[in-house]
């Protein structure tokens, strides 16, 4: 089947008569595929896409194994049939029927987005039709997006499918966005996993369908989980955060030598506008970024953004207090973005990146 489809968002790995998708992880965690793929390192599966071209078919059927807590979306010729992700109707094998009869005669390119560790079994078309692998465009853009649970997509109603980095990728036209973020982690916070600088060792192992030199963009959005380093440059916590950030950037560049790297400051959630913990972390990592001095990298302030932090206030969905935009942008768990919050962060990130690209075009 793989010869007739193009996989983006991750690499497909065989499992019995099906395929599963995976991205980097270091320990067993929710959604982990180690039970299916008993190799090291272990794996987590976030969002992947299966894309194929059909010629004369007016109907396509795809078989997947999933459960009712998972989601999928379908695009035809680059347009979503519905932008709202669909939940599966059954736990176990599901058959998705894609009706193309209302469209002009093909060929058509169909893409199915799937989340978590779904198993993709087969694609069927009528005997008079055929499917083929779409040609890879010369404009293909590969992006690796690392960070914490915000970049995983936590807080979204649609799990990883709702992550701001996936929305950012669609807005930017990035054709292959790989979520290599691990919730609970940071520059100095391992969160039961490993710190950011240690995570990228698994990137080329799990994503061995591409060369790291092919990665065009890397986004690093971390620091929310890190402890407050304070404001004293001589303090041990401050030095540790600074050194960890420098090491992270150096290793990212070594891993992805040709990528444009965007480093985002830490989120402040419902801590309040310009919260001291997030502000102090951002100031340290910004100083580390400046000292690193990479000419193909850009720092994007978040908590210390002008004229104000991206996230303001201390309220959240369901517990509003009119103190700022977190009334709408932070989910009821008081930590992660809501659906609106993920979309908002994606729009803010897009604005920053497009401004950088516009400035670069004038050099």
Descriptive account of the structure:
It is globular, with a radius of gyration of 21 Å. It is an alpha+beta fold and 363 residues long. α5 links the parallel β16 and β17. The protein contains 8 helices and 18 strands.
Number of helices: 8
Please give the radius of gyration in angstroms.
21 Å
How many strands, what sense, and barrel or not for the largest sheet? Answer: 7 strands, antiparallel
Helix proportion of residues, in percent? 10-25%
| Low-confidence residue ranges | 27-41
H/E element sequence: EEEEEEEEEEEEEEHHEHHEHEHEHH
Q: What class, by secondary structure content?
A: alpha+beta
How far apart the termini lie comes to: 46 Å
**Number of DSSP strand runs:** 18
Q: Please indicate the percent range of residues in DSSP E strands (runs of 2 or more).
A: 15-25%
The whole-number mean of residue pLDDT values reads: 89
Please tell me what the overall shape is: globular
Can I get a quick summary?
By secondary structure, the protein is an alpha+beta fold. The protein is built from eight helices and 18 strands.
Question: Which helices and strands appear, and what pairs or packs with what?
Answer:
Blueprint: E1 6-8, E2 11-15, E3 18-24, E4 43-44, E5 48-54, E6 59-66, E7 71-76, E8 79-80, E9 86-87, E10 92-99, E11 108-114, E12 119-124, E13 131-132, E14 142-147, H1 149-152, H2 164-172, E15 176-179, H3 196-199, H4 203-206, E16 217-221, H5 236-255, E17 260-264, H6 276-292, E18 297-300, H7 326-329, H8 339-360
Parallel strand pairs: 14-15, 14-16, 16-17, 17-18
Antiparallel strand pairs: 1-5, 2-3, 3-4, 5-11, 5-13, 6-10, 6-12, 7-8, 7-9, 7-11
């Amino acid at each position: 089947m793989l010869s007739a489809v193009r996989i983006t968002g991750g690499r497909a790995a065989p499992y019995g008569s099906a395929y599963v998708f995976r991205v980097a992880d270091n320990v067993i965690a929710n959604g982990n595929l180690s039970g299916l793929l008993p190799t090291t390192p272990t794996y987590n599966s976030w969002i992947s896409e299966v894309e194929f071209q059909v010629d004369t078919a007016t109907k396509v059927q795809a078989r997947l194994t999933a459960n009712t807590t998972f989601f999928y979306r379908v695009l035809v010729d680059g347009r979503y049939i519905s932008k709202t992700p669909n939940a599966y109707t059954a736990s176990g094998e599901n058959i998705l029927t894609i009706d193309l009869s209302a469209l002009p005669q093909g060929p058509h390119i169909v893409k199915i987005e799937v989340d978590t560790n779904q198993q993709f079994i087969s694609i069927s078309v009528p005997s008079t039709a055929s499917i083929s692998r779409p040609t890879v465009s010369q404009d293909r853009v590969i992006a690796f997006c690392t960070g914490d649970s915000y970049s995983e997509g936590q807080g979204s109603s649609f799990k990883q499918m709702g992550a701001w980095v996936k929305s950012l990728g669609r807005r930017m036209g990035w054709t292959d966005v790989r979520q290599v973020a691990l919730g609970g982690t940071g520059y100095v916070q391992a969160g039961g996993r490993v710190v950011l600088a240690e995570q990228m060792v698994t990137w080329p192992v799990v994503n061995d369908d591409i060369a790291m030199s092919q990665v065009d963009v890397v986004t690093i959005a971390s620091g929310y989980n890190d402890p407050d380093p304070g404001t004293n440059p001589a303090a041990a916590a401050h030095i540790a955060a600074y050194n960890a950030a420098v090491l992270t950037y150096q290793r990212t560049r070594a891993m992805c030598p040709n990528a444009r790297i965007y480093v985002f400051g830490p989120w402040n959630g419902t801590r309040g506008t310009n919260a001291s913990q997030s502000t102090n972390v951002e100031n340290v990592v910004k100083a580390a970024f400046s000292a690193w001095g990479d000419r193909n990298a850009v720092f994007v302030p978040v908590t210390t953004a002008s004229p104000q932090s991206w996230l303001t206030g201390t309220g959240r969905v369901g517990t509003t207090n009119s103190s700022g935009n977190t009334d709408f942008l932070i989910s009821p768990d008081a930590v992660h973005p809501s659906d609106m919050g993920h979309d908002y962060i994606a729009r803010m990130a897009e604005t920053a990146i497009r401004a950088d690209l516009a400035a670069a075009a004038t050099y």
